[in-house]
């Protein structure tokens, strides 16, 4: 049977898999291609919305997020550019089969979608995932299918002029001046630059601008960086990229401390007293050892059932799954591509106003053509301000800020000690650890297994 014939008979083919537990020819020998065929049929089954495919990558990401099973780097995985993990495939198949066909908003349940069939959809999903991965933990989907994939234009709002890009050299000092805290969330690098040396120089210049501002006004601002080293699986490209990103940040800090630069010792002393790094995917045993001196106070809070805020998730802190309302912003598409093909390069800076009442969000990405700052100096990062992604994200940022204040003696935030303790417990529960710079630069900080730090 041809691939076209298989596509035409996809519904009955999937029903047969549920009955027999095996994949049909010719896809049994190429389950990755069959997975893509399912994806394409799901896209087709969604029909059109305003002349464009309803079941876009953006819609798929929204459905996954709503169900609580977000898939990182979704577009890259569907396109075969990044390895697909078995948990990702299961989450996708669950969405495909439970939202198999869009009918009408009135007749298809609360969303307009109807499932592939009534009954247990796992009977169809499990054989496919088993054939797809066999003895592997992650695979690449066939890249040849990229030419056939759905490629909807996702942004319907008025376009944003590329000339509105802001230079990092302007955005950072202007916002730092009026803020009580700054938070940097990076996925591929905390600083953009065409070379590693340029990126290191840019990072050192940013820190120096912070330091010079402090020398002028003596305001104790809190500096926070957030990274996730991943699961440290050397066989997985996503894991390698995540680990390299965390190590790059450590390299940047070492450059600030070790490079010959006037005032280096005083600058480093100030930075160490005002900065923390929030590290994700940390083993709880390592985190507990890190907080050993505060264990008694933390345990008293941990016993309270209401310590963990409802609705707070890991992704709210890392922004690795873009908030749904950002996906509808023309600014977001201008930064990362209309189909978000540059999303892997996304990083964010958050600024807390000096009254500690409101967070401002900026997205940034590497600039292929340098953006000129107001003084004519080229900047290799392009910035745009984004709307607040919502109260839950503001709450996550405030939790991180409160936890940073707990660990920094110099912090003078308007947060009670009880709230600081609760924030520490929340982050520990979600596998985050709050490191002082001296702790983050320890050679074994990013070890995941407790035995490596014993």
Low-confidence stretches: 1-8, 106-110, 144-162, 449-454
How are the strands ordered across the major sheet? 7-13-12-11-8-9-10-14
E-strand count: 14
**Count of all domains:** 2
Helix content: 40-55%
User: Shape from CA axes?
Assistant: globular
Q: State the major sheet.
A: 8 strands, mixed
| Percent range for β-strand residues | 5-15%
Amino- and carboxy-terminal Cα gap: 59 Å
Structural class: alpha+beta
Quote the average pLDDT.
79
Assembly state: single chain
Overall radius of gyration: 24 Å
Count of separate DSSP helical elements:
18
Tags for this entry?
disordered N terminus; 454 residues; alpha+beta
Give a verbal description of the structure:
This protein is an alpha+beta fold and 454 residues long. The chain folds into two domains: 146 residues, no CATH class; 292 residues, no CATH class. It has an eight-stranded mixed beta sheet with strand order 7-13-12-11-8-9-10-14, with helices on both faces. The N terminus and C terminus are likely disordered.
SSE layout:
Layout: H1 3-8, H2 10-20, H3 31-45, E1 48-49, E2 52-53, H4 57-67, H5 74-78, E3 84-85, H6 86-98, E4 101-102, E5 113-114, H7 122-133, E6 138-139, E7 166-167, H8 168-177, E8 179-185, H9 196-217, E9 222-227, H10 237-258, H11 264-274, E10 275-279, H12 284-290, H13 295-302, H14 315-318, H15 330-336, E11 347-353, E12 359-372, E13 378-386, H16 391-407, H17 417-429, E14 433-436, H18 437-440
Parallel strand pairs: 8-9, 9-10
Antiparallel strand pairs: 1-2, 3-6, 4-5, 7-13, 8-11, 10-14, 11-12, 12-13
Q: In a few lines, what is going on in this structure?
A:
The chain is of the alpha+beta class. The chain is 44% helix and 15% strand. Helix 9 links the parallel strand 8 and strand 9.
């Amino acid at each position: 049977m041809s691939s076209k014939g298989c596509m035409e008979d996809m519904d009955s083919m999937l029903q047969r898999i549920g009955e027999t537990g095996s994949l049909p020819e010719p896809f049994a020998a190429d389950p990755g291609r069959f997975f893509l065929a399912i994806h394409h049929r799901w896209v087709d089954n969604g029909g059109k919305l305003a002349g464009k495919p309803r079941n876009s990558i953006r819609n798929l990401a929204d459905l996954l997020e709503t169900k609580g099973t977000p898939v990182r780097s979704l577009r890259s995985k569907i396109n075969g550019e990044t390895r697909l993990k078995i948990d990702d495939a299961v989450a996708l198949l669950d969405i495909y089969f439970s939202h198999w066909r869009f009918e009408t908003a009135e007749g298809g349940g609360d969303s307009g979608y109807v499932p592939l069939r009534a009954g247990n959809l796992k009977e169809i999903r499990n054989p496919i995932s088993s054939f797809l991965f066999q003895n592997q933990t992650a695979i690449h989907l066939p890249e040849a299918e990229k030419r056939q994939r759905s490629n909807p234009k996702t942004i319907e709002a008025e376009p944003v002029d590329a000339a509105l890009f802001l230079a990092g050299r302007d955005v950072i000092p202007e916002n730092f001046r009026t803020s009580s805290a700054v938070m940097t969330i990076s996925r591929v690098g905390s600083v953009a630059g065409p070379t590693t040396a340029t990126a290191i120089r840019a990072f050192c210049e940013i820190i120096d601008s912070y330091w010079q501002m402090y020398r002028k006004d003596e305001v104790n601002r809190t500096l926070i960086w957030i990274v996730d080293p991943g699961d440290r699986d050397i066989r997985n490209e996503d894991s390698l990229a995540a680990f390299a990103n965390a190590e790059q940040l450590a390299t940047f800090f070492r450059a600030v401390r070790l490079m010959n630069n006037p005032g280096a010792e005083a600058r480093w002393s100030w930075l160490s007293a005002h900065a923390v790094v929030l590290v994700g995917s940390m083993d709880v045993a390592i985190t507990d050892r890190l907080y050993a001196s505060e264990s008694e106070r933390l345990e008293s809070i941990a016993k309270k059932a209401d310590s963990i805020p409802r609705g707070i998730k890991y992704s709210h802190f890392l922004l690795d799954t873009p908030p749904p309302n950002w996906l509808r912003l023309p600014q977001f598409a201008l930064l990362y591509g209309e189909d978000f093909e540059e999303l892997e390069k996304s990083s964010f800076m958050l600024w807390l106003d000096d009254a500690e009442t409101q967070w401002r969000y900026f997205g940034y990405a590497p600039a292929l053509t340098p953006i000129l700052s107001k003084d004519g100096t080229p900047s290799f990062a392009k910035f745009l301000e984004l709307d607040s992604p919502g109260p839950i994200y503001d709450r996550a940022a405030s939790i991180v800020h409160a936890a940073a204040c707990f660990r920094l003696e110099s912090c003078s935030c308007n947060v009670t000690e009880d709230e600081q303790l609760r924030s520490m417990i929340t982050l520990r529960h979600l596998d985050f650890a709050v490191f002082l710079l001296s702790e983050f630069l320890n050679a074994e900080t990013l070890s995941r297994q407790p035995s490596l730090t014993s």
